[in-house]
Amino acid sequence: SDISLRSYPTSLRLLSWIKVFTFYKVEDQQLKKSLIFQYVCLKNNIEYDLDANHLLENLISLYASSKFLNIEKDTKKYEMLLLEEINNQFDKNNLHYERSFAYHFSIISRLYLIYFISEDLLKKRIRKILGSSYSILEQFSNKEGVYLFHDEELLCIFIKTVLKTSKKDFICSGGPSVTRIIPLIGTSLKGPLMKMFFFFNF
Questions:
Q1: Is the full-model pTM beyond 0.70?
Q2: How close are the terminal C-alpha atoms of the chain, in Å?
Q3: What are the two backbone dihedrals, phi and then psi, of residue 110, each rounded to the nearest 5 degrees?
Q4: Inter-CA distances, 7 with 41, 110, 174, Å
């Protein structure tokens, strides 16, 4: 249907299919033809008009799909485009520019997958983002290891008492399901690369 072939859900679905194909060693040719069909549809309908997270998800999916399908020409093309878009959408602290922790760590789950199949400059750039993201998790967790992303009141208390950061350094604005936060904490976000496996969402 038109709805199922819209670019954003197609991007997410292709990645899920690739995981299943790879993990379960699926060889069904009808499913393979469907995956290729969805890949071609996405290629022809990249969401340049919406930009932001939609465009990033499109390019992540196209890169992973072209790798999976061994389409070398496409892989090189989308590797370049993906690297360019990552550089556009992640700031000097390696945070996504939409400034939503919920979305940042959602996209990290996809970049974690891309890290293992990427090479050279793209791999190095994603490595920096993953390292910083783990550090962010440490800084915005309580003593029990609970990540304070979705409760604005608890998060602001945490900022004030644990990080001892003044109100002017943070802007908190709650949403229906996401706490948005704009951190202005400099460039000191460093940390280990791994322990990211829990973001690998099937």
A1: yes
A2: 24
A3: -80, -40
A4: 8, 16, 28
What average pLDDT does range 6-21 have in this prediction?
Answer: 95
Cα–Cα distance list, 195 to 100, 124, 199 (Å): 21, 17, 9
Distance CA 107, CA 125 (A): 14
Residues 15 and 161: their CA atoms lie apart, in Å, by 40
CB atoms within 10 A of CB 125: 19
CA-to-CA dists, residue 132 to 31, 91, 96, 202, angstroms: 37, 11, 11, 23
Residue 185 vs residues 28, 90, 130, 166: alpha-carbon distances, Å: 50, 15, 18, 11
**Alpha carbons 96 and 98: distance in angstroms, whole number:** 6
SS3 state at 5: coil
Tell me which of 35-44, 45-54, 126-135, 161-170 is least confident. 161-170
What pLDDT, on the 0 to 100 scale, is given for residue 61?
A: 98
Backbone angles phi, psi at 31, to 5 degrees: -65, -40
52: left (phi over 0), alpha (psi -120 to 50) or beta: left
Q: Which amino acid is at 190?
A: K
